[in-house]
Every structure is written in structure tokens, then in C-alpha cells.
Design goal:
Blueprint lengths: L6 H20 L1 E11 L11 E6 L9 H15 L4 E2 L8 E9 L3 E15 L2 E10 L5 E10 L2 E27 L11 E11 L4 H12 L11 E7 L2 H8 L6 H5 L7
Parallel strand pairs: 2-3, 2-4
Antiparallel strand pairs: 1-9, 1-10, 4-8, 5-8, 6-7, 8-9
Helix pairs in contact: 2-3, 2-4, 3-4
Length: 260
Amino acid sequence: MKPHLSRCRIVALLAVASSWFLAGCATKTYHVKVDAISKNESTNPSDAQSYKIKSKNAVLGDDNLRYKEAADFVKTALSGKGLYEAPTADTADMIVELDYGLEAPRTRIERVSVPVYAQVGGGVRYEQVPVTSSRGVTSIRTVAVYEPPRTELVGFDEVPREVTIYEKYLRITARENKTVSEGKPPTQLWSIHSSTEDESKDLRKYLPIIASATVEYMGKDSGPSKDVKVRVPSPTVDFIKKGMGDETTTVAAQTPVPKI
């Protein structure tokens, strides 16, 4: 006897397959440019595990609501690398400076494909139809039949289009939290500049997407800039969006970050 699936099981499998297909159709991929620098990659990461985060933008400060949201995304990304926030700035191994924003908009010319439609058909044709008079006499008469034209897709054309592009960026810089001589800045441990650009200027929407692309490059040197593809939705972006919540920093530091 050949093995067979019950009708209910087949329906269930089809439902699961359909959900996977629909989820795949709803997924969008963003390209994030990541440029990471580490001046001392040989240093053991355990030498600097705790941090205190602060805004690099003096105008915004640390009390700005948008900054707090961005800082929460970065803290979550840092927790994915096993780092945790120190109780005070004095006890932190390093100071993490955060900067983010929109660059000045710029325009560029893109060639886009547009459909070309044309009216086809239509006109007048003549038909011979029988006509019966009031006396019951039938004769043949030629009448004009008018046909309206119809619109059909006949092809595509490439045309230039001017678009406005907005670059959304996130810069994270980690420095040693040590006293240095006057006039000398603290030693920079690593730095990441990540950005993405398109026609959207919704910075709030893009911050968790950009932050998720930085996780794998914290404390590393990327060499040439990397094009990181971030899928939305994805476990990594969901991880960043969820934030630190009410958990303690110790627990959050042990939470593994999902793979992009």
C-alpha cells in the first residue's frame, strides 16, 4: 500500500506553504553602506565590555526623544556583541558617541521604464441587415456600424526622471574612558559609519534598519565599505526594534543577535 496524506494534513501543508509565499512577497531588502574602522583589532574584546552612551550632537543633547529612541536601538545592537551599559560614566570601559540624521537632499536623474499605450481598432464598417416594413415587406438595407477604439499596451519606453534622494546615516564611535593629557582626545577604539539612501526621508523608520547592519562590524575593520543587505521583516531588525525593554543590562548583554 502506498503511503498517503490525509486530506486535513494536505490542507494544512498548503496553508503553511501559502503563508511562506505571502511572507516572501512582503519582504523588502534595503542596502546599507557600512564603513567600519578599528585601530586595534587585536585587542581582546573582553578588555572593554562596558560602555556609557552619549550624543555627539550638542544641539540635540541626551534628553531629545528621538535621540533616546536611537540610543535604545544602538544599545540593543551593542548587547548583541556581548557589551553592556555601565551604571555610571566613571565605571564604563569606553564612551560610545552616537550621531545620526539626514544629509542634505540631492537630486539625480534616473531612467525609468514607463508603459506606452495606443488606441487601436475603431472606425466604421457596413453591414447588410434585413428590414421589414409596416406592410410586411422585407428588404435588405446597408447600415453603418460605428466601433469605438480600444486602448492597448503596445510596449515600454525608457524616460529620464528627476528624483530627490535622502541619505539617512548613523555614526557610532567608541573611545577609551581614560584620563588623558590636556588637549589630547581619548583613544578611539573603533568607529562605524552606516547609511542608506533613497527617496524616503523617514529617519525614524530607517534607524533600526541601519542599526541592524552595524552589529557584525562593531570592533572590526571592514576594509572597503560593505554593502549590507537588510531584509524587512527579519529576526535581526525585530531584535533591534524590540529594544532593551525592562530587562537588566546583564541579561541583555547575554542575548545573542540573530543573523541577517
